[in-house]
Amino acid sequence: MRTPFLKRRARLLFGSLCLVLLPVVATSGPAGLGPQAAYAAGGEGSEVTVSGTGEFADLKVTVGQTRNLVGQVVKISWTGGKPTVSDTAYSANYLQIMQCWGDEPTGPAVDQCQFGGSSALGAGAGNQAGAYTNTRQLNYGANLQDSEKEPLPPPTPSGISYAPFRTFGGDPVSPGNWNEFYDVNSTNEVPYARTNARGTGEVWFETQTTVEAPGLGCGSAVTGPQGAVSGRGCWLVIVPRGEKEVDGSPHTAQSSGQLQSSPLSPANWKQRIVVPLGFEPLGSYCPIGAEERGTIGSEMAAEAVTRWQPALCQTGGKAIYGYAQVPDETARVKLLSGTPGLVFLGRPAPADPVRKPVYAPVALSGITIGFFIESQAGFQATPEVKARNGTRLGSLRLTPRLVAKLLTESYQDGNSRFADSTAKNPANLGLDPEFMRHNPDYAGLDFPNKLGDALVPQPLADTTRQLWEWVNRDPAAREFLDGTPDNTGAHGDAAYAGMAVNPNYRGMALPVDTFPKSDPYCQPFPDQHPNNPLCIQDKHPYATDMHAAARAASRGDTLARTSWDATATPPTYKKDPPQLAGSRAVLAVTDSATADRYGLVRAELLNAAGKFVAPEPAALIAAANARKAGADGVSSPDPAAADPAAYPLTVLTYAATVPADLTEAEGRDYGAMLTYAAAQGQTPGVSAGSLPHGYAPLPEALRAQTRAAAQRVSAEAGKKPTPAPEPSAPTAPAPGAVGGTPSGTGGAAATGGSGSAGTGTSASGASTAGGGSAAGGAAAPGPAAASPSTPAGTTGAAGATGTTGTSGAPAAQAAGTTPDWVVGAIRNVLLICLVVGALAAFAGPVLPRYLPGVLLWLRSLRGAAGGAPVASAGLADLPADWATHKKTGPRDWSPPDQD
Q1: Residue 664 vs residues 659, 754, 809, 812: alpha-carbon distances, Å
Q2: Is the pLDDT assigned to residue 787 strictly greater than 50?
Q3: pLDDT tens digit string along 456-497?
Q4: Of 94, 90, 96, which is closest to residue 81 (Cα–Cα)?
Q5: What is the mean pLDDT of the chain?
Q6: What burial class does residue 318 get, using C-beta atoms within 10 Å of its C-beta: 0-12 exposed, 13-18 middle, 19+ buried?
Q7: Is the pLDDT of residue 780 over 90?
């Protein structure tokens, strides 16, 4: 019978084909969409000022950055406007701002603009303005007709004509104010921008790439005729609104006394001001087929490394440097794993008797409390204070005790106004006398249900520990955390409120590397949903990292989920929309570079000299010069440093590797990266390859240290240190004991093999290129035993570096697989599924045919080694249920004990 044989051959052929196609599936993808935008060329100094026309001819709008854009925030300011009518609403004389795509040199059409999502907040964003002013609706009833008389789009079944939205890729889109491509939680539109009494104003606008706004496609890689890659350009559109409606009538003629029509109505759209925006290309900017070098580590390096990546792969060896953000402890484990790559961290790894890391300073920045707070006058505020409503506040001073209050759920609005634990404390910062003493500009302002806490990142981090160390060193903060109210004790003030720490944090041991949320209070809703109270993780959730915290704060988004959605499956709390324009107040723990990227103002913190200092470059450099020297060239902050100019939460980030555990090619590429980081990488700017704002350029002494480290990494790569002679053991090792010594070398029983390139798994779960298995010699019988001191991910044949015998050639060692942290989680799932399928295709026909013989061969080896002789040589000696693949119960598959 040849049919089963042919089927087996077919399955084997299919399995082979799957394995051959794996690299193709892993690297292929759909081609990019969108034509080249000629106006998207890059360049520094890209501030642009444009003027209005007609009745808005005196209006001049300045956009702070229009080139080399990424997902970030840019400042938009203007002069020559008329003051907004009403200091608490938007009745007339304001701007409406949106982002659009479009390939015509004259600018975009109405259907290419992202606008209308904010209407989910209600008509006029909660009655702040006219009913249709933040929508895409173009028909307003018989009493308000657009003077342009253009045909309206086809109405929906409810009779509403919406301006359609068309994506850059031509995707189908549902009609309405929002759709599959943006909504109230993702849109970057500014429906209302206020002009003050001086005729000026300013807003901070989020420019979105195709990642944040997939319908616009901004920044998608576009290849030009000569092969140059650029990012798809987009447009900024500003629609000024005056005092007249689309039919020429004054706003006072409307029943509400407010403008009513959408900025997308033809008469309003005619007044638009357009500014071209140039974006950095996303993804496809490095040579195809270049060597890939993985880097991982601290989020403090993220902004710098991602800005350097496009330039690094165009210089030197043109290697592609991947980057994955991981917790600091994961980076330290990776550093000593035997396959270090290059890691970024702020504190060194523990001393290792064999592996000697090299540390190179690469980035100087700071931990900060970034904030976006708009002036909000209280009911009894003076006219002068009310006149500032909606304007952005530019200062915030915080002491360690105030930060401790924010981070321990000690304000009512940082916990719940119904919680007994904080019922006697002020509701928020704005009602705390201690805060008001240091921030007199906040007098007369009111922030209901805001400023009770700060958005904090969830991952464990050295930066979190450093922040808590700063809090813990302050006597007033430590006294507060130990339970002393702020109006008593050695550091209290009788004029303060008597605020006490949330009892769930009393006596908190510091420092820690996380931000706990320890209050167990949950607000019950016995009548609506008794089984689903509102708890702290919904009302005050974590941000996924500092980047997410900063972006959310820049949008006025607290990330809270407090709105009960009974229609969800299962019913749950849904995410709250961002705060209304003009009444936003959000704090976030983030880093200074990310705060700058998202336009957050950075709080001034109290340093050891008693001065409030912001993380400006001079303050960061002053703190770096005051650091204490440490082992391996890694310095640490000096708590006793009393330089009044120094910022107290300055962070110096190091790149680190172990040259001996690198191949020569890896050492050459990582050395080139460090050389770049110490030179061009310290030039501040916004273009690819520069140092992002928010970092301070490294002082020359630190750059010299990095250059020296780069030379060491390049020169010492792949050169294993000569191990010290080991004393002879009193007894011989057990036969077959392999797995390596702490240095990662193979055990004595593994002989005759040469090291071949392979992959190992780091503590973070990422597959990393490294030394492989012993090959070419006879395998010793017995199970492999890993050394207890070998780091996770380096045990066994895969991932361990070096074996006894001749090491593999450098070319073979350099042929490691692409690190998983570069590839991405989704692609990993696909590859795993394909590998499992391929192995199943092989295993099905192979196991029944060959496994019995393999088992018998192993038994013969055991007999030859002195065990009991094995007489049987057939299937009769296998378990009775083997032939039918049935397991009747637990079975011990280990060989019998030897006498």
Answers
A1: 9, 18, 10, 11
A2: no
A3: 999 999 999 999 999 999 999 999 999 999 999 999 999 999
A4: 94
A5: 82
A6: middle
A7: no
Q: For 624-642, give the DSSP string.
A: HHTPBP-GGG--B--TT--
668-720 per-position pLDDT tens digit: 999 999 999 999 999 999 999 999 999 999 999 999 999 999 999 999 999 98
Residue 156 near residue 162 (C-beta atoms within 8 A)? yes
Q: What is the mean pLDDT of residues 119-146?
A: 88
Distance of CA 768 to the CA centre of its chain: 22
The encoded tokens of residue 203 equal 């807003």
Q: Are 694 and 318 in contact (CB under 8 A)?
A: no
Closest to 422 in 3D by CA, of 440, 437, 410:
410
Whole-angstrom distance, CA of residue 293 vs CA of residue 288: 14
**Closest to 240 in 3D by CA, of 278, 267, 216:** 267
Output the pTM of the full model. 0.76
Which pLDDT does position 726 carry in this prediction?
62
Q: Which tokens go with 214? A: 């997939």
DSSP state for residue 564 in the 8-state scheme:
E
SS3 at position 305: helix
Q: How far apart are CA 114 and CA 167, in angstroms?
A: 9
Q: Say which residues have a Cβ less than 8 Å from residue 212's Cβ, sequence separation at least 6.
A: 71, 186, 188, 206
Q: Which of 14, 24, 18, 29 is nearest to 834 (CA)?
A: 18
**Most confident residue range from 165-174, 797-806, 813-822:** 165-174
Q: Tokens 């997308």: give the residue.
A: 264
348-376 b/e with 16+ CB inside 10 Å = b? bbeeeebbebbbbbbbbbbbbbbbbbbbb
Residues 6+ apart with CB under 8 A from 836: none
Give the CA radius of gyration of the chain.
Answer: 32
Residue 421 has phi, psi (to 5 degrees) of -60, -25
- Residues 173-185 have a mean pLDDT of 95
For residue 667, the model assigns a pLDDT of 96
Average pLDDT over residues 37-51: 65
Are 590 and 550 within 8 A, CB to CB? yes
Which of these, 101, 98, 109, lies nearest to 34 by C-alpha position?
A: 101
Under a CB-based contact definition with an 8 Å cutoff, are residues 279 and 69 in contact?
yes
Token digits of residue 179: 């759709």
Cα distance between residue 811 and residue 664, in whole Å:
9
Whether the CB-CB separation of 647 and 657 falls below 8 Å is answered with no
The predicted pLDDT at position 859 comes to 52
What is the pLDDT at residue 887?
Answer: 35
Q: How far is it, in rounded angstroms, from Cα 306 to Cα 321?
A: 9
Q: How far apart are CA 678 and CA 599, in angstroms?
A: 27
Question: Would you say 455 and 588 are in contact if contact means Cβ atoms under 8 Å apart?
Answer: yes
Give yes or no for residue 38 having a pLDDT over 90. no
- Taking alpha carbons only, the member of 333, 308, 335 closest to residue 320 is 308
What is the length of the chain? 899
Cite the beta strand spans of 155-264 per DSSP E: 190-194, 201-207, 221-223, 229-231, 234-241
Judged on CB neighbours under 10 Å (0-12, 13-18, 19+), 135 is buried
DSSP label of 460: -
Task: Check residue 831 and give its pLDDT.
Answer: 53
Cα dihedral sign, 555-556-558-563: negative
Q: Strand pairing of 397-398 and 604-606?
A: parallel
